[in-house]
Amino acid sequence: FVNAKEISDSYTFTVVYGRNVASESDFTATNNAGAVLVLHSNLILSETYFNGATSTSLNSEVYGNGFYIDFQNLPQNSSNGKSEVYLNNSLHNLTVRGNAIDSTKSSYDSWICFTGDGKTLDYCVIEHYFKGWTSGRTITFNNCLFRHAANTGVQLAKDSETGVLNFNDTIWQEVGMCAIDYQAGTINISGLF
In a 3-state reduction of DSSP, which class is residue 29? Predict the structure, then answer.
């Protein structure tokens, strides 16, 4: 071949020892066991999963493989109208959907709480929620997208003197009041913002 140009691609794969999750029953059996979860399909958690609770926790490290976990059926607290999703571990290539996507509910009810101290979110999408929140934690966001937040992308609360948020190549899309509500602590930003 005259004047042929070599074409090549490279891919990086992360091999993990984890539990495959393809259904709500798989998720229920493994989320609180502290295992690493590897998604093989989108999950829309049912009202039955929440059993009337107005808050829930994602306790396991999750490799999302581009799939999502949808919390649209998480009930609102009748006294304050809030529902809360606590992200307690590292997440990779996962979309987390709050319950603001449900038009029968107020968009002012869904809080995404980043509570995993020292944890990292890589290539994640956080969407359809009222406010992201954290307090006194060190959390790193690498190549993440925050979109469709009615109020605040992430709030570093005023009791967060020791909190550090690192945003590396982070994109904010259609965030209501502000991308970051910085009340105390440290914010580090590099790359796209």
Answer: helix
Q: pLDDT tens digit string along 71-124? A: 988 888 777 778 889 999 999 999 999 876 555 555 457 889 998 888 999 999
- Please tell me whether residue 25 adopts helix, strand or coil conformation: helix
Encoding tokens for residue 124?
């994640």
What is the distance between the alpha carbons of residues 132 and 46, in angstroms, rounded to a whole number?
A: 22
| Residue 40 structure tokens | 């093989």
Q: Are the C-beta atoms of 191 and 168 separated by less than 8 Å?
A: yes
Question: How big is the CA angle at 74 (ends 82 and 149), to the nearest 5 degrees?
Answer: 60
Report DSSP state, residue 163. -
Task: Tell me which DSSP letter residue 33 carries.
Answer: G
∠ CA(96), CA(102), CA(107), 5° rounding?
80
For 121-132, write each residue's pLDDT tens digit.
999 999 988 888
pTM here? 0.85
Q: How far apart are the two ends of the chain, measured CA to CA in Å? A: 45
Of 81, 92, 82, which Cα lies nearest the Cα of 58?
92
